[in-house]
Every structure is written in C-alpha cells, then in structure tokens.
Design brief:
The chain has 12 helices and 12 strands. With about 400 residues, it is an alpha+beta fold.
C-alpha cells in the first residue's frame, strides 16, 4: 500500500503514540529492578519494587498510593526480605549491603515504585566481575523477572542509564555474573565529550544565545556618516564583510571566550567552591539571550561582543554544572569529567557555527539581511524575556509550549 502525503500526519500520530506507550512502560508491572552505580572505589545501588510486590513479599497492606510514613513502619521487614534474597560477591569475598534512606518514584498514571537505596561495604577496589544473587518475588509470581541495570559507570561511559539492561533474573536463573571491565578511562572520557555535545544541542537556550552571537558575524557596524550610502535614520549601518576567513575566525574567538567563561564557573560549581540558586542562574541564562540579541539592534559594547559572550558565559557555566550534578559525576574522575564535558560543549558549539556561518556568509549581501538580522533579534528578545519571566517568577505563561514547538 502506497503512503499518501495526506495520510502522513496520521502515521506520525501513531508513531508518537506508540513511542509514548513504550516510554510509559519503562517500568513493567511484572518486573522489579536492581540498579547499580560503579564509582572509582565504591559500589552503590537500589532495589525498586511496587507496593503490590512489597505486599506479596512480606504480607503487608500498603496502598498503591504510597506514603513514606506508612512505608517506614514496614522497612525492617522489607530490608530483611531483600537481604535474604539477594547478595553480592567477588574474588574479594562477600559484600555487606547497607541500606540508606528510601525514596518513592512517582510514575503518575502507573504504580509507584519504592527505591531502596544501598551501599556495598567492604569494597576495597572495583573488581573485574561482580557475582549477583537475585531471588526477589520469584516464589510469589512465576512470571516475575528482575531487571539489573548499570545506571552509572564512568569507565564504561554510562551515565543516568535507565534503559539499557545488563542482566535479567528469572525463576531458576537467580545467580549471574556482571562484568565491570567493559570500559576504560578513554571510554569514560569520550562519553563525557559526547555528553557535552549532546547537552549543547538539546539546550535550546544555549543554542539561541550562540545564534544571537552568530547573526551579526557576517556584517560589521559602521557609523552612518562613514558609509557612502543614502542618508539613514540610524546612527549605524550594517555592512557585509569582504572575506570569509577573518569573519569566521572572529566568531570562533567569541565562542571560545564563551567556552572559557563557562568552563571557569562549571569547575567552581562542580568542585563545590561557588554555588548559585538554580532559579537565578536559569533566569540570567534566558536574559543573556535578550541582551545578546538587543546588542544586534542597539550596540552595547561596540566591536566587543566577546565581552558579552564571556560575561554571560559565566552564568551558563553554572547551568552546565547542574547537568554534571544530575549525572552523579561530582568527585569521580572530576578533572577528566570537566575537561571532557567542556571539550564536548566547545565542539558542539563550533559545529553549530560551522553549519550556520557559511549560509549567513552567502546571503550577507542581500538587501534584506539587515532586516532579517533586526527582526530575528527582536524574535530572540521576545522568546528570551518570556523565559526570563517564567523562570524568575516560577509561572507558566501558556504560550511557552507553543514557542517550544517551533523548535
């Protein structure tokens, strides 16, 4: 059957629908989960079970709508059950499971999962292999399975993984061996570079800031009286650059100053030396787009755009720091993490410049380019101020979803 163009929206809808279903079922009701985090010299993790699974395991009567107060009443029984039906060992011997404070994962339309966080004691060094015993709920449900996932392993280049499983435990298959050597410092470093590139590409606010800096890169401001053109009401006239290389190197210099700035504050924040409130940082990041765009209309620092890039880059660095924090990278190979992530951000930015700059250079002499520059900057200002208000006041202006859909 030939696909007609008018049918395309319908099939796109179906694709998105099934994608949503696949995502929504990331936690399957007949599965429990064992997550592991492999650090430089420590191993931690968590068990994840639903209230129904906990009730089956220990005969409790927890509601599907989990409340921490009720959960804490049965914690000793749950811990005893998990300790009796799981275990970890290596050539170093058996490891002791030490539970920490539990949390609840709210999945809204699905059953909530309880996260029983733990650390493994007696770990003196990370072994090549970890022998895992997992026999949770198999006696209560024949179809139940236990999914083991390595959520974090720097050397293997794994960060915040919740989709790629490592082992599957089932009734009759409760003892398996997990390899911890599938990686190296180089794998971890290159993964951080990719993370930096990925973050700049999905960070629409960072991209728009870079775009605001790129737009005027193929033209130069000249005072109106210095330009042999008909009189203008404006004090400045945009004139196209003559050569590609100097203009390209100029914008690369500006982007590099941006990278230097956010590298400084990223390091300060990641090392815990300086920390700023998230709401303030995100608001200033949004406002930086408006300032950079306004500079394209009314010069703030004539021929010193690098100062705008550097000044606001300091705040963008605090925004990047939250990404490293979310990925649990604090203190684990920190120097390599910072260098790799920053290198990735710089590569990502330069690729954006390399993709956009040649196009702008080709159309720079068009009579409508100054109009495009002006009203494109106005649009950026509007978007940036919208985000600034939302982030600063913690409100939803409703038109945000519409604007985001444009991108």
């Amino acid at each position: 059957m030939k696909l007609q163009f008018k049918q395309l929206p319908f099939f796109l809808f179906l694709a998105l629908f099934f994608l949503f279903i696949a995502k929504a079922e990331a936690h399957h009701p007949d599965q429990s989960y064992l997550y592991l985090r492999i650090y430089k010299d420590a191993i931690g993790g968590r068990f994840e079970l639903t209230a129904k699974d906990i009730n089956r395991a220990i005969g409790s009567n927890l509601d599907d709508d989990l409340i921490m107060e009720n959960l804490k009443k049965v914690l000793p029984q749950i811990y005893e059950y998990l300790l009796n039906r799981s275990g970890f060992k290596s050539v170093e011997g058996d490891y002791t499971v030490r539970f920490t404070e539990p949390t609840i994962l709210d999945l809204e339309e699905m059953e909530d999962f309880v996260r029983f966080h733990f650390e493994l004691d007696n770990v003196t060094s990370i072994p090549d292999e970890l022998d895992i015993y997992y026999n949770v709920l198999f006696d209560q449900n024949k179809t139940h399975s236990g999914i083991q996932i390595v959520e974090y392993n720097w050397k293997a280049g794994v960060f915040d993984n919740e989709a790629r499983l490592s082992l599957v435990f089932e009734k009759g298959n409760t003892r398996q061996t997990l390899s911890l050597t599938d990686g190296s410092l180089w794998v971890g470093f290159t993964a951080l570079v990719k993370q930096g590139m990925y973050h700049i590409w999905i960070g629409i606010d960072h991209i728009l800031f870079v775009l605001a800096l790129i737009l005027p890169s193929v033209v130069r401001r000249r005072k109106a009286e210095q330009v042999p053109v008909p009189k203008s009401s404006s004090s400045f006239i945009w004139m196209p650059v003559d050569r590609f290389k100097p203009a390209f190197l100029y914008i690369v210099k500006i982007i590099t100053f941006f990278t230097i700035a956010h590298s400084i504050t990223l390091a300060l924040a990641a090392l815990g030396i300086v920390n700023l409130p998230s709401r303030m940082v995100e608001s200033i990041i949004a406002f930086s787009i408006a300032i950079a765009a306004f500079h394209n209309i009314r010069p703030i620092l004539l021929s010193k755009e690098w100062m705008i890039a550097f000044g606001f880059g300091l705040f963008h660095g605090f925004g990047f720091a939250s990404v490293l924090g979310e990925k649990g990278l604090s203190g684990d190979y920190m120097v390599l993490s910072l260098f790799g992530f920053n290198l990735g951000v710089e590569i990502g930015q330069l690729l954006i410049v390399a993709a956009i700059f040649p196009v702008l250079f080709l159309i720079r002499k068009s009579k409508w380019y100054p109009v495009f520059l002006k009203y494109g900057s106005v649009l950026l200002i509007f978007i940036a101020l919208h985000w600034t208000i939302e982030r600063a006041l913690g409100v939803n202006l409703r038109i945000g979803d519409f604007i985001m859909n444009l991108f």
